[in-house]
Design a protein that fits this description.
Number of helices: 2
Radius of gyration: 27 Å
Order of helices and strands: HEEEEEEEEEEEEEEEEEEEH
Strand content: 25-35%
Largest sheet: 4 strands, antiparallel
Shape: elongated
């Protein structure tokens, strides 16, 4: 009876975690480049009521009898699937179609292991020194793992091809570039660690970028770049609301397990009367 109390408690706690994940997904339904998450459950320890035994000459085999002790969250996995494309008409709004991640660095001396993050959000700007940066001021890296600087003479025209090649003219009619935007791919992109601000960092699970380098769009399996577009969140509200209902019912059922077990304990205590 006490086991059922603890099982109910574990059910409530972990369904709350699942609801937290769902709530975060729904909150980011309009976040550019956001990747949804899913909480996965697993059962926990079992208490053996009867051990298993093999058949012998006089008696057949007996299967084990075990009573579970509840459940826990086994993992929170990320859905790295492609989001829909939204047209913006802005040159420095970039979307990746296919494999790859933009690499952005907190430092103007980038290092892929220590100060580089990865993102699918392609909202970029030109700062006061002519560098391409994201909304947090992190430098966009090229295929040579350097920052992309367009100079301080202003930008008259700018274009970005599907191959990620940046070309243009400054206000003095001098050529800008060409620069090639770098993309990163990983042995296990699902293992990337979320760092907030639409950023991911490499982890032991994701491994280092393939080849320990950044690749070029449209080459060797890397995706293409679409200028004037942004990748939307891949959250599916239909799935999220369905999962919300399922999670709510699971939480309610676990709560009912606790109240019913409490009523049974009350009946036991009343036996003495």
């Amino acid at each position: 009876m006490i086991r059922s109390l603890y099982s109910g408690v574990s059910g409530m706690k972990n369904h709350q975690i699942r609801m937290d994940v769902i709530g975060n997904n729904i909150a980011n339904v309009n976040t550019f480049g956001f990747k949804s998450s899913r909480a996965n459950f697993q059962d926990t320890l079992y208490q053996a009521i009867r051990s298993a035994s093999a058949a012998d000459a006089d008696l057949g085999g007996i299967s084990p009898s075990q009573v579970g002790m509840g459940m826990s969250v086994s993992s929170v996995t990320s859905n790295m699937g492609q989001g829909n494309m939204q047209s913006t008409g802005r040159t420095l709004d970039l979307a990746i179609q296919g494999n790859g991640w933009f690499a952005v660095s907190k430092s103007n001396s980038p290092d892929l292991e220590t100060n580089t993050f990865y993102t699918r959000e392609g909202v970029f700007y030109i700062d006061n020194e002519g560098n391409l940066v994201n909304s947090n001021g992190y430098y966009l890296l090229d295929s040579e793992e350097g920052i992309i600087s367009l100079g301080t003479d202003g930008v008259a025209t700018l274009s970005i091809s599907e191959a990620g090649i940046i070309t243009g003219k400054d206000l003095n009619d001098n050529d800008l570039g060409p620069f090639t935007i770098g993309l990163a791919m990983f042995p296990n992109q699902d293992g990337l660690e979320r760092a907030g601000q639409n950023l991911f960092r490499q982890s032991a699970a994701s491994g280092k970028p393939i080849g320990d380098r950044l690749g070029e769009p449209t080459v060797d399996g890397y995706g293409s770049i679409s200028s004037h577009y942004l990748e939307m969140s891949n959250v599916d509200l239909t799935d999220e609301f369905t999962n919300m209902i399922i999670t709510q019912r699971g939480y309610q059922a676990s709560a009912r397990t606790i109240t019913t077990s409490d009523q049974m304990l009350e009946e036991l205590l009343n036996v003495k009367r």
